[in-house]
């Protein structure tokens, strides 16, 4: 650490989790409401939700303009759910209970603390301090209070903030451009899938009206049916905190284990309890996120491979089990499925029920044609997936560079005192 920086505990630099008793309640006053999914990325917050203060007073976390809000639970903390909030409705906000609030004192600049808690040094220590099991690990308040901050003088803080703002803006701009390219490739992938699972591969085949608006015409020899007639939808396992154990138990798959159409086992919950046989995964099962606080995650799914069999799955997920799943998997990743899903979700309901899934329409070609379509889509989507993965790797390297830069600057290893400050 730079010898001109002092080591000061965070509790002497900021108020941690200020009490809401400082708010003077006014009847019917509107305030901003921020669920975790509205903390979009580092520094970006969606403040579009406004609620009467009476609705959010109990059971939520209070903050005000200029406060730092930071996710305290895994994996949201590691994912960078952190921001300085401003322009809140009436200057006041409430959010998920899974937030820590940091309010800088006058002896430190808020933006300097904002960058410090993004540094690798702080993040590594914070993750090590987490308590709890599985996906319920949290950063304790005590850790924040006693975290040591390398504190320079106010002028150096100002120069550090200016330098990192400029560098971060450039990096964010590059990341957004690359993310836009990913979005376009994903749209192309979905369009290819939708065309194949609703129209087939033969452009000259005779068509007929499906009778369903969002499907349109389908090949004359295909049949329109419902999901419940081609397989079984199974609600996941319900378990209590007392059932959760260490890694020697049975893995219970959750929505966080569904990543980019595949099963990821990097954030697991284990249980020790009696589990019915049908609640263990089998080859070619489709695991679907059926309930989540974020509407955008409802319907995301993954095909179960041999290496992921024998696991269980939680109550906020559903398994669809069918002999036709190699084809059905692509249907569930088509615009056709997304259109139907949208009719069941509202601003207050983020759930795909068993009943809704069972009654969803699906177009079924003959089995031989299903296999040809599946082979075609495996090849086409594989090529696009490789392109997307390469761009995601580039984005990850940019994020790692930013993290490294923040650490070097906030600890004084890179001296910015002689650099020109943008006013």
From TrEMBL:
Entry keyword annotation includes Transport: no
Sorted UniProt keywords: Coiled coil, DNA-binding, Endonuclease, Hydrolase, Nuclease, Restriction system
InterPro entries: Restrct_endonuc_typeI_TRD, Restrct_endonuc_typeI_TRD_sf, Type-I_RE_S_subunit
Keyword flag Cytoplasm: no
Coiled coil segments of this chain: 377-408
Location of the Type I restriction modification DNA specificity domain: 58-180, 219-396
Superkingdom, taxonomy of origin: Bacteria
GO molecular function: endonuclease activity
Entry-linked PANTHER family: TYPE I RESTRICTION ENZYME ECOKI SPECIFICITY SUBUNIT (PTHR43140:SF1), TYPE-1 RESTRICTION ENZYME ECOKI SPECIFICITY PROTEIN (PTHR43140)
Subunit and interaction comment: The methyltransferase is composed of M and S polypeptides.
Family statement: Belongs to the type-I restriction system S methylase family.
Name the record gives this protein: Restriction endonuclease subunit S
Organism annotation: Sporosarcina koreensis
């Amino acid at each position: 650490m730079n010898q001109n920086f002092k080591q000061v505990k965070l509790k002497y630099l900021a108020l941690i989790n200020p009490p809401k008793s400082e708010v003077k309640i006014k009847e019917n006053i509107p305030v901003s409401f921020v669920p975790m999914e509205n903390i979009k990325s580092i520094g970006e917050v969606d403040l579009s939700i406004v609620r009467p203060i009476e609705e959010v007073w109990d059971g939520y976390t209070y903050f005000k303009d200029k406060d730092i809000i930071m996710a305290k639970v895994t994996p949201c903390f590691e994912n960078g759910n952190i921001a300085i909030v401003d322009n809140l409705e009436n200057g006041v906000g409430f959010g998920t209970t899974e937030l820590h609030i940091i309010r800088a004192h006058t002896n430190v600049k808020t933006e300097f603390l904002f960058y410090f808690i993004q540094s690798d040094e702080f993040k590594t220590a914070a993750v090590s301090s987490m308590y709890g099991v599985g996906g319920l690990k949290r950063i304790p308040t005590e850790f924040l209070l006693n975290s040591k901050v390398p504190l320079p003088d106010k002028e150096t803080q100002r120069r550090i903030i200016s330098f990192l703002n400029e560098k971060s803006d450039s990096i964010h701009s590059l990341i957004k451009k690359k993310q836009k390219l990913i979005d376009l490739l994903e749209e192309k992938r979905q369009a290819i899938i939708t065309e194949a699972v609703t129209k087939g591969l033969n452009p000259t085949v005779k068509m007929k009206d499906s009778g369903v608006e969002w499907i349109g015409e389908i090949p004359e020899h295909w049949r329109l049916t419902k999901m419940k007639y081609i397989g079984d939808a199974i609600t996941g396992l319900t378990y209590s905190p007392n059932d959760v154990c260490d890694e020697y138990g049975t893995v219970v798959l959750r929505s966080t284990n569904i990543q980019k159409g595949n099963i990821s086992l990097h954030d697991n919950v284990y249980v020790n309890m009696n589990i019915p046989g049908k609640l263990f995964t089998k080859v070619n099962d489709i695991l679907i996120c059926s309930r989540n606080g974020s509407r955008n995650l409802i319907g995301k799914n993954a095909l179960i491979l041999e290496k992921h069999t024998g696991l269980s799955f939680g109550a906020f997920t559903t398994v669809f089990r069918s002999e036709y799943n190699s084809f059905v998997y692509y249907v569930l990743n088509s615009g056709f499925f997304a259109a139907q899903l949208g009719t069941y979700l509202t601003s207050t309901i983020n759930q795909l029920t068993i009943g809704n899934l069972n009654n969803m329409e699906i177009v079924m070609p003959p089995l031989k044609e299903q296999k040809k379509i599946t082979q075609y889509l495996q090849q086409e989507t594989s090529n696009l997936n490789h392109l997307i993965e390469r761009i995601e790797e580039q984005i990850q390297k940019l994020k790692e560079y930013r993290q490294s830069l923040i650490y070097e600057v906030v600890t004084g290893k890179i001296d910015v005192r002689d650099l020109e400050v943008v006013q």
